Amino acid sequence: MKNILKIYKRDLKKIFTNSMAIILAVGIAVLPSLYAWFNIYANWDPYGPASTGNMKIAVVINDEGYEYKGVEINVGDQIKSNLKGNNVIDWQFVSKERAMNGIKAGDYYAGIEIPKGFSKSLTSIMTKNFKQPKITYYANEKKNAIATKITDKVVQTVQTEVNESFVTTVVNLVNKLLGTVIEEGKKDGTNIFQNLQNQIDSAKSAVKSIEKTIDGFEGVMEVAQDLNKTLSKTDLSSVLGDTQNVVNNTQDAIKVAESSVDVVTSSVGDVLTSSSKKLENSANNLKKINDVTTEKAQAEIKSVLAECVQARKELQAIVPTLENVNNSLPKPLSAVKALVKILKTADSRLGGVENELNKMLQGDTSKKVSDVANKLSEVSKTLDSSLSTYENDIKPTLDNTIDSLLDVLFDVSNLLTTIENQSPQLNALVKSLNGSISAGDDLLTSLHALISNCATQLDNLSKKLNGLSDSELVNALVNLSEGNSNELGEFIACPVTVNTEKVYGLDNYGSAMAPFYSTLALWVGAIILVALIKPKVSNKKEIGKIKPREEYFGRSLIFLTISLIQGLIICLGDLYFLKIQCYHPLKFIFAGLCASFVFTFFIYSLVAAWGDIGKAVAVIMLVVQLGGCGGTFPIDVTPAFFRAINPYLPYTFVIDAFRECVCGTYGNNYWICLAKLFVYFFIGLFICTLFRYMFRKPMRFFEKKIEETGLF
Predict the structure, then answer these.
(1) 3-state SS assignment for residue 87
(2) Handedness of CA 514, 520, 526, 527 (dihedral sign)
(3) Distance CA 511, CA 500 (A)
C-alpha cells in the first residue's frame, strides 16, 4: 500500500512541477466536457418552431376554386392562408418549375403541390362519378435524413387541415340546405315531416284517381263497340269532362313509379356488391386464426358473426322486394325467380355459418375455422356470381320491361290529350277501335297492376316517414340543423381532441439528449486518458522495488483522479452552464462521478493488460455502444444484434441512471443502474489481475514486433 501511494504522490508532483504537464492535464480534464456540451447545445430544440421555422418547403398552389350549388369553394386559397399563419416551417409559395429546380438543387427540403381542379375534385363526392383529390409531395431525401421525417409530419398536418376543411364545407352545405327546408316548413306552419307527408298523401290521392280512371277506361273498352253507333258528340263531351284531370294524374303516377323502380333495381346491386366483399374479407380474416380460444381470435369471430348477421338482414330485405316487382309485371321474369331462389339459398347457408360461429364463441372446437371460412368464401362467390348475372342480364331486362310499361303510360297520357282535343272526330275513331279492343284491355290490366303497386309503395313510405318523425336520432339532427352550422361542421370534422399529459416530461430536446452525450463524453475522456498517459510506471528505482500489482493500482490512481475531475466538469456544465432540466442534481453529479470512475478503471485495465490491443477494444466498445445503448432511437427499433446486447452495456446503465435524475426517479431504478455499472469495475479488476499474467509473454512479443516497425 505504501508503494501505491508513493507512485500516486510522485505522479501528482511531476504534473504540478511541470507547466506543460499542467496544461496537458487541464486539457485532458476539460476536453471531454466540450464534446458533451457542444452536442447537447446543438440538439437543444431541433423540433421547435424556432428551429424548424428555418426549413424551407416549396408550396405550389394551382387550384382555381369551384362554385357548387351557389357555394364558393377555394381550398387552395384556404391552404395558403393557413400556411401563412403557420410559423412551424418557412413556407415558400412559388411556381412548380421554381419548386422542382429548388428541390433538386437543395434550396428546399421538400415541396407540396395542390393541382388544378383540386376544389372541384373535392365537390365531386356529391356526384356519382366522384374523383378523389390528391396532394403531391416531393421529398429531397439526399439533403438530410432527419429533415424528411420532419417534412413528412408537416405534410400530414396539411392533409389533415384539408380533410377537416372539406368535412366542414360539406356539413355546412348540407346543413344550409336542410335548414332552408326546415325554415320553409316553419313559414307554412308545418315541419319537414309534415310537408313530406302532405306530398305523399297528394301522390296517393293522384294514384287512386288514376285507378278509378283506369277502371272507367276498362268499362269504356268493353262497351266501345256498343256505343260506336249511338254515342253522340254531346254524350262524348260529358264522358270526357274529366280528361284533363286524368292526364295530370297519369303523369304523376309515371314519375312516382319510375322513381320507385329505379331505387329498387339500384339497391339490389349495391347489396350484392357490399355483402360479397364483406363476406370475402371475413373469410380471409378467419383463415388467419390458428387458435380460436385466444382473445384476439374470439374478437375476430365476433366481428365475422356480425358481418354474417348484417348480410342476412340485407338479403332478407331485397328478396321480397324483387318478388313484389317481378309479380307486378304483366309477365314475371324467370331470371328474377332464379335469382331469388339463389339468394334464399345463400341466406340459408349463412344461417348455418352463423350457428357454427356461435358454437365457437361458446367454446366448441369441433369445427375447423378453415372449414367455416371456406363456406363463407363460397357464399361470397355465389353472391358475386349473382351480381354479375343481375347487372348483365336481369337488370337490363327489368329496366327495359319497366321502361316499356312506362312508355305505354305516356302513350295513354298522350292519347287522352288527343281525345280531348279531337272529340269531334271521336265517332270515326271509335269505328277503328274494334280490332284493338283486346290489346287495349291487356294494356289497361298491366297498368292497373303497376298503379296498385305504386299505391302500396306509397303506403310503405308513409309508414316509414311516420317512424322517422318519431325517431330521437332524426329529431336530434333537425335540432342540430337549427343551430350554428359552422360549429356543427367543425365538430364533425374533428369530433375528438387529444389531451396530452406528460409522464416524466422534458422541457427541451437538449435535456433529453444530455444523458447520452454526457455518457459518451465520459467514455471518450477515459480513452483520451489512456492515449496520453502511460499505464506503466517509469523510473521505478526512484520509488524502490515495486510489485506489478502495486504498479497497476498506483498508476490507476492518477487516471481515476483526472477522470473524476472530467466527470465533475461535465456534470456541473450540464447543470449550471447549459441549464438542462434535472430534478435530482446531486444524484446526477454522483452518477457522473461513478460512471467516470468505472469507465476509466475498466479501460485502464484493458490497456494495462493488453496494451494497444486494449485501446482498440475500448474504441470498438465505443462504436458498438453508440448503436446499442438506446441513447438516441428507442432500442426496440434497432436491429436484433443491438437489442440483444443492450441490457449488458455500461452505456445503458449510465444513461438510465442519468435519465432518472433528469426526468424523475421511479423506485430504486437509479441505484439498480449504478449497481449494474459497478460490475464492469470488477470485470476490469479481473482482467488485470488474471489475464494480465496469462497474456504477459504474448503481449511482450507483440509489443516488441510493433516497435521493430518504427511506425507505432
Answers:
(1) coil
(2) negative
(3) 20
Summarize the confidence of residues 589-617 as an average pLDDT. Answer: 92
650-663 and 585-610 helices cross at what angle (nearest 10)? 170
Per-residue cell: 366? 369441433
* CA 263, 266, 268, 270 torsion-angle sign: negative
Question: Which residues, including other chains, have CB under 8 Å from residue 575's CB and lie 6 or more apart?
Answer: 582, 585, 588, 589
Are 254 and 406 in contact by the 8 Å Cβ rule? The answer is: yes
For 280, phi then psi, to 5°, come to: -65, -45
**Residues 588, 662: contact at Cβ < 8 Å?**
yes
The highest-confidence range among 333-337, 410-414, 689-693, by mean pLDDT, is 333-337
Predicted pLDDT of residue 232 = 45
**Contact by Cβ (8 Å): 417, 247:** yes
All residues at 6 or more sequence positions from 521 whose CB lies less than 8 Å from its CB, including other chains? 32, 33, 35, 36, 566, 570
Q: Are 163 and 119 in contact (CB under 8 A)?
A: no
| Measured distance CA(160)–CA(110) in Å, rounded | 18
Confidence (pTM): 0.56
Burial 220-246 (b: 16+ CB within 10 A, else e): bbeebeebbeebeeeebeeebeebeeb
The residue type of 9 is K
Residue type (1 letter), 664: G
Identity at 626, one-letter amino acid code: L
DSSP element (H, E) containing 137:
strand 136-139
Cβ neighbours of residue 668 under 8 Å, at least 6 residues apart?
A: none
Cβ distance 420 to 240 under 8 Å? yes
Q: What digits encode the pLDDT tens for the residues 197-251?
A: 677 777 777 767 777 776 666 665 565 545 545 544 444 455 445 555 554 555 5
CA atoms within 13 A on the CB side of 169: 23
CA distance 126 to 638: 47
Q: Is 91 helix (H, G, I), strand (E, B) or coil?
A: strand
Residue 313 and residue 273 in contact, taking contact as beta carbons nearer than 8 Å: no
Name the one residue in this structure whose C-alpha cell is 429531397.
140
Cα distance between residue 391 and residue 666, in whole Å: 66
- pLDDT higher at 1 or 663: 663
Residue carrying the nine cell digits 281525345: 419
Residue whose C-alpha cell reads 316553419 in the numeric block: 186
CA–CA separation, 357 and 354 (whole Å): 5
Quick one: CA torsion of 548, 550, 555, 561, rounded to 10 degrees?
150
| Strand bridging mode 90-93 / 56-61 | parallel
Sheet (strand 136-139) strand order: 90-93, 56-61, 110-114, 136-139
